[in-house]
């Protein structure tokens, strides 16, 4: 029993560590369009496609966000906590490993990209990514729920259509069955008439045979 509890606690710690690692923010470098930049990285377990959409939408609150092949930029972004002057945002969403996506963020302040993330500029830049991580998690939960609803709705509509098709098939079958019954009744009447005619023909034959010389 004690061993099972220890194993369970170990698994819980590993899961918590994995989630923490998946959303950690840390300094790093990124090569974008053959140029290396220093910035901050955010790891996420959200798909690269969805994360790109969320990130582009999120950056739109700072200015006009443009996205091309995962690279998202904002010229003349308004980020008061970073600088009173316009800031250039250079970022990229990628998927470095299977099952994990990543956001890279570099900021250009007063004509120069930040070369060292420490102190106030680190905390301010980190807060942007952490705020985004929280919002992205909620947006992804909504997306997952929406996808589940859409899939269930799609299946529900298919079931309704299948039911309608089956109803039509039954109506066709009932109509065909009614026609077959009518044909069967007609056939029975014809059999009775044919039998009467056969019996009459048989009597006529026997009558003619009786007239043959013996």
UniProtKB/TrEMBL annotation:
Residues 156-208 form a coiled coil. Keywords: Coiled coil, Signal. This is DUF4468 domain-containing protein. It comes from Dyadobacter jejuensis. Residues 1-22 form the signal peptide.
């Amino acid at each position: 029993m004690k061993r099972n509890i220890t194993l369970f606690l170990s698994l819980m710690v590993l899961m918590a560590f994995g989630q923490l690692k998946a959303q950690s923010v840390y300094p790093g470098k990124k090569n974008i369009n053959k140029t290396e930049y220093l910035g901050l990285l955010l790891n996420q377990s959200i798909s690269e496609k969805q994360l790109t959409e969320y990130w582009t939408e999120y950056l739109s609150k700072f200015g006009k966000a443009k996205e091309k092949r995962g690279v998202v930029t904002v010229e003349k972004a308004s980020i008061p906590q970073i600088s009173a002057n316009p800031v250039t945002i250079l970022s990229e969403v990628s998927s470095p490993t299977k099952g994990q996506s990543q956001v890279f963020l570099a900021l250009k302040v007063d004509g120069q990209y930040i070369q060292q993330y420490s102190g106030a500029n680190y905390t301010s830049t980190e807060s942007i990514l952490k705020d985004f991580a929280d919002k992205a998690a909620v947006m992804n939960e909504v997306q997952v729920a929406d996808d589940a609803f859409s899939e269930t709705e799609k299946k529900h509509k298919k079931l309704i259509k299948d039911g309608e098709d089956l109803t039509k098939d039954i109506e066709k079958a009932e109509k065909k069955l009614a026609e077959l019954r009518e044909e069967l009744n007609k056939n029975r009447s014809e059999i009775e008439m044919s039998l009467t005619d056969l019996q009459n023909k048989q009597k006529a034959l026997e009558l003619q045979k009786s007239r043959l010389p013996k």
